[in-house]
């Protein structure tokens, strides 16, 4: 990098995101969620003047700052007579959001949707049809992409256990269909997550394939 | 899973975990290696830094030395056919690397292999 180019990059005006759809895609969630975040959690969204319609825009760097603040501090300075329970609910919401990336990727048969939920060094363990799968999470991504669409997938959160910087999620998956899953597969998934730089990331997936 | 088979598997899992506990107590990784699957992974924050890989765990155990006062408690043992999750609460860690009077929350995931229950991942939280 040439000298001074870092400060030039910082001062260069960013291309704003010009719609709820673009903002949602940047934050990797639904339009409904970003609208709710604007209404309740101060998501930095701007509006163009003199437009009758809801014309919004947002700057990526402002969204990044908001996201970092959101995962580190309580979103509203409301009185918290039981700080431990309040803290659990915040972490529970953040963990659930991470897990929904995984579920969205599974349903769409698209590993690129679930990849942000995982730590780069995440691993997998489990048996599928008698074959042992132990190794890089890339095995999951390849399986998901090869499996394709699973529109009838029904996830249920059996347990979310949080111990400071680590968490365990037990997810029951029913109705999994596709080229690899078959017609109506049932999987028991257990995820270990770690809170890294304020974000919850899956570090391990352990699974049991229920063979009928 | 009926009550009898849960009890049988539970006993097998607790027995498999003794290798980890004894290795920790004596500060000898060789006692715990067979409790881990060869492909097991390990991740967590130690001393404020993110650490990965079972070799880091084994080196840490050997470097820490004996921890004779550790008091391990099985906080939960969930058995789901071929997979299991164990939460181990350990108080009283001591040693060259641990210090003294340290508490750790350990989460193990295990897989039932043809060689018995093996740890496939350990995650931990070191309580400040």
Describe the structure.
The complex is a heterodimer of chains A (212) and B (128). Chain A has 212 residues and is of the alpha+beta class. Helices cover 37% and strands 33% of the residues of chain A. Chain A folds into 2 domains: 14-72, Arc Repressor Mutant, subunit A (Orthogonal Bundle); 83-210, Nuclear Transport Factor 2, Chain: A, CATH 3.10.450.50. Chain A has 7 helices and 8 strands, in the order αααββαααββαββββ. Chain A has a 6-stranded mixed sheet with strand order 4-3-8-7-6-5. In chain A, strands 1-2 form a two-stranded antiparallel sheet. The radius of gyration of chain A is 20 Å and the shape is globular. Chain B has 128 residues and is an alpha+beta fold. Chain B has one domain (3-127): Nuclear Transport Factor 2, Chain: A (Roll). A 6-stranded mixed sheet of chain B has the order 2-1-6-5-4-3. Chain B is globular, with a radius of gyration of 14 Å. The chains are: A alpha+beta (212), B alpha+beta (128). Chain A binds chain B through residues 119, 121, 123, 125-127, 132, 134-135, 159, 161, 163-166, 168, 170, 188, 190, 192, 194, 196, 203-204, 206-208, 210, and chain B through 37, 39, 41, 43-45, 50, 52, 76, 78, 80-83, 85, 87, 105, 107, 109, 111, 113, 120-121, 123-125, 127.
Structural class of chain A: alpha+beta
Q: How large is the radius of gyration of chain A? A: 20 Å
The backbone outline of chain B, from C-alpha atoms, is globular
Largest β sheet strand count, sense and barrel closure of chain A: 6 strands, mixed
Order of helices and strands of chain A: HHHEEHHHEEHEEEE
Which CATH top level class of chain B fits? Alpha Beta
- Overall geometry of chain A: globular
Tally the helices of chain B: what do you get? Answer: 2
Number of domains of chain A: 2
